[in-house]
Amino acid sequence: MVRSALRRCLALACVVAGGGADVAHLERLERLERLDAWLASNTSAAPPAHWAVTAPSDVRAGSGFVLESGQKQVVASQLTGTSGAQVIVKALRKAAGPFAFGDRASDIAYFELVYLEYLRGAPGVPLLHGGWETRSHVFWVTSHDGLPIATGKGTHAHPMRPPAPPVPRRARGARPPKRYYLADYDRRATEEPVALAIAWLRCLRSFGERGGFVLTDFKPEQFTLDSRGRISLNHHGCRYADCANATGAPELAACEADGACARFDWRAHVFDAATRSWIFPRIISLARDRGAAKRLKKLLGPMTARDPRDRPQFSALLRDLAS
């Protein structure tokens, strides 16, 4: 089954990354087994016991739409109870009815839940509070980690645009406020360039180097910035490394017309961090401290090595910036 194969891949990824079969890794795999059992039961089994959110009553009514499409809806809300924490509620319509591995809608939910559960507690990964399932939808609830740094793909054909904050349902269609979160991104790039670069590297290290995941739609609106300067991968999530990825890394330059490419891994995102106009290039260009900009610029050569085996790991880049 897809889920069993993915579980084996995650186990192998940990060994390759040097983690071995330690207790923490085995606990992560055990949580994935609970997730599998819940999804496969199609509402007949209780959600995983370690989840804090297991029913609609654990979340207040949505306060603002973040994203809406034919299948998926993302709503900003709050937890009920004493914490009242700000959260994001995601709802995905199951096109085939009961949850079924192999159904596109079900797989979208599954891969994102695997990403959130396997990397629980890692920097740059939203906290999965839990979720619930109905016969027509899968719901999951994560921490609210700020707003997307921009919208668009960050390319010449599809440039970045500053994102509007979530709009309450009653106000949809109204003109959004003029204050955009991208202004805070640019402010941090100007005033704290190394700290912002470190925030990016910590996020990318979590889902790439440590999780073995590759983002299949690498664009600025997938990433959020919070009030503490932390970058998180929030929207859509990741898929384990296969053959389709929106990256400029040279190892994917020989993709066939049908999108088939040679195998690749998370090191494509080392290249992305160095070349995407909205990550290191934007930080370097805006940095007021030109000495800090020069430190970051020195990393670009190794990060853009044509052979991915010659690129530094995110951990090595973080050590360089910490020294």
Automatic annotation (TrEMBL):
Ranges for region Disordered: 152-174
Range of residues in the leader sequence: 1-21
Superkingdom, natural source: Eukaryota
Keywords tagged on the record: Signal
Protein name: Protein kinase domain-containing protein
